[in-house]
Amino acid sequence: MGVARGDERGTTERVLSLLGLLQQRQIWTGPELADRLGVTPRTVRRDVERLRALGYPVHASQGVGGGYQLGPGQDLPPLLLDDAETIATVVSLLAGAGGAVAGAGEAALRALTKLDRVLPTRLRHEVRAISDSVESFGGGRAPVDPEVIMTLARACRDEVEAGFDYPSGGDLRRRRVEPYRLVASDRHWYLLAYDLDRDDWRSFRVDRMAGVSARTWRFRPREAPDAAAYVQEGVASRVYRHQARFLVHAPADTVRAQIPAAAAVVRQRDGGGCEVLSGAGDLDFLLMHVVLLGHDFEVLDPPELRTRCRALAERLLAAGGHPAAVTGGGRQ
């Protein structure tokens, strides 16, 4: 004789309730769980076996202080969150993704998009209200509408085209893109996407977007550059009039700790040194920043920067009372 659908549903709901209880407290006795679930201790033992068959490591111990305990396993099983826990988790991810923890931005966005699949409508309004009530100070990241972040994250996840208005030459112009990754720096969110009108990869500041929407047109993903590296190089170098490369005779980790990620790209080189790529509107400005790092360095590019080095050195010597003629012409 088969088991009725109602009995199957009741068993599933009870097992999920048991899992939720085990995740709330370190240890439960059999009678406590039976009382909470309204069943017999024998049914609790059967439901524990069902959880074990699903991969949850439920341990049982005898004697005083013994009971059932959910232990760590080789894989992370699904977690059951109540409404309050879900809201707190989503708000925390929205507020801190890609922030203080190195490498956490992409993982946080993956977690957000997974929660987004199952987040009830009634909780979306609470998440938005709480997110809007959180502010920061002291050079934090530029404020971005959480709905915009989620719209772009869904578009990246679902591989559908996105559109938005973006400043260009003093005007807002509509851009059609194939979104690839969201990247968070210490100050801004960026979208790396393939610009369909310009037929090339571009990075866009999310706080400058308006009218963000996802379309139903799906696309086949292209071979893409490394998202974080592409955005960092664009922010630190490509947007400026002058770009320069230096060989700095110091470990890359040491130099990275001295320069904000948005100001330069630092790459490890063989022999213990590192390459620093940066940009600015003025070559002397770049030189002074590298000088102030306090390490020996060499100019790699551009060639005219070597001339600026000599001119700046003679100017500094003259300022210090050294009898050297100032040469090299004006600033570039």
Automatic annotation (TrEMBL):
Pfam family, one: WYL
Keyword Transcription regulation belongs to the record: yes
Coiled coil segments of this chain: none
Transmembrane segments: none
Record domain HTH deoR-type: where: 11-66
Keywords tagged on the record: DNA-binding, Transcription, Transcription regulation
Domain of life, per lineage: Bacteria
Keyword DNA-binding assigned: yes
MF-aspect GO terms: DNA binding; DNA-binding transcription factor activity
UniProt-recorded name of the protein: DeoR family transcriptional regulator
Protein source organism: Nonomuraea glycinis
